[in-house]
Amino acid sequence: SSELTQDPAVSVALGQTVRITCQGDSLRRYFATWYQQKPGQAPVLVIYGKNHRPSGIPDRFSGSNSGNTASLTITGAQAEDEADYYCNSRDSSGNHLGVFGGGTKLTVL
Amino acid sequence: QVQLQESGPGLVKPSQTLSLTCTVSGASINSGGYYWSWIRQHPGKGLEWIGYIYYSGTTYYNPSLKSRVNISIETSKNEFSLKLSSLTAADTAVYYCARARHGDNQGWFDPWGQGTLVRVSS
User: Using the beta-carbon criterion (under 8 Å), do B108 and A42 form an inter-chain contact?
Assistant: First the structure.
């Protein structure tokens, strides 16, 4: 299967820790990549590879992988973290990078 | 700083072919190691990969769109293009261009263009 499954919505209290998950067979072989998208804006890369953050991404964002599940953890969520988060990986055959999860809407309460 | 910018019509008629161009600045599209990509997002929905092209001209397409998609590269202009044929209202979306990179067991799209809204309507 080349599908990635995410919970549609997750909420977190301000300053607390939240985990957003992504499941798929391809994640047994390939790391997930995570993007943050705020309303009216293009997606922004936040985590790639084993647990790498691009320059400018706060260190409260981290990634992990276990079996067929990848997780994006935000430790000490801030109001500005409220956004849609998408996971992304290769298809199961590794032919291309074009598989996206359906997205998780994170609400910071 | 690498930047990508989409350009093209905002309104296209059904059955016609959409043509979009992505202009790259801050990097040479002719350098190896990157795949130049198109991704779209239907209104209120998630991200859908359309396809990408390597500087050599090798292309990879979403199987669900492959019969209607053509991505080409113009290294002399440092830009690449998308053509999507036989349009229907279901092709109404924001279209993004992005640069992709692969590793052995990882990959990512970064950076992205700001996106351009394309509406298919008569």
Answer: no
